[in-house]
Design brief:
Number of helices: 9
CATH class: Alpha Beta
Order of helices and strands: EHEEEHEHEEEHEHEHEHEEEHH
Low-confidence stretches: none
Distance between the termini: 27 Å
CATH topology: TIM Barrel
Number of domains: 1
Amino acid sequence: MEKLIITAAICGAEVTKNHNPAVPYTVEEIAREAKMAHDAGAAIIHLHVREDDGTPTQSAARFKACMDAIKAVCPDVIVQPSTGGAVGMSNEERLQPITLDPEMATLDCGTCNFGGDDIFVNTENTIIEFAQKMFERGIKPECEVFDKGMIDMTIRLNKKGYIPSPLHFNFVMGVNGGITGTVRDLLFMKESIPQGSTFTVSGVGRCQLEMATTAILLGGHVRVGFEDNVYLKKGVLLKSNAEMVERIVEIAKLLGREIATPSEARQILGINKK
């Protein structure tokens, strides 16, 4: 199997210090968490940004400050900004980070109920708009899919030329309103993507470790971090993102998967370093 790419989703847009005091908000906290996760084995830092009080923002200026701070302490790491932002943000708000020309960014490929009255809206036209703007800037999209229908949408837009090959997916599993985080459903998702595609698995909450381990065995890649889960195990809060990255590295080694460096991740994903 090819080497394992580990992505660290270090803060997200919704999780707060009330959930776990170690969740980073400030530029300094974000850079510190990114470096620790990278040093532990993460090749990609999936990045949301916050104001100092924890308010989620898609401000290009705030993204630049955080990305510059991350690159100052781990210059080779791949920084992957989110264009998902937070529920309720406009397309214009969400797209701000791509003006910084990152190597990679997320492309959400469908609409999902997030519980209560929260709806994460991504119409077909929104997906096409985001994909076209990423393509114009030479940004590798990671296609975020929360269920099988979003895979089908991605494939359809790929065939129409909006999303270039080879496709890279992130299966977000265990979200309220999305596909459940079970081995059965992960196998279903894996078998639904085109040959030659790559995939990462993001298990949310209590399913994180099972989904990560299964992804390693299936030849996929893994995302962990505070965005998806703030616990090391039931009742025990993570001290840092790096603590879960270290656990994934340990499991991968036991299962015979070597860990990809950022340079090796670029080669696997077909990214040309900017």
